[in-house]
Amino acid sequence: MDALRLNGQGHSMDKQEIVAVIRRELGSVITQRQAAKKDAALNAARVALRTFQSERMAETHADLLRDPGTRAAAQFFLTDLYGADDLSQRDANLERVIPAMERMLPAPALATVAGAVSLDALSERLDAAMARRLGEDFTEADYIAAYRKAGSRAERERQIDQVASLGMSLCELVRVPLIGATLSMMRGPARLANLGDLQNFLERGFKAFKSMKQPEDFVATVVSREREILRRLYAGAENPFLLREDSH
Question: Can you give the pLDDT at residue 94?
Answer without folding.
Answer: 76
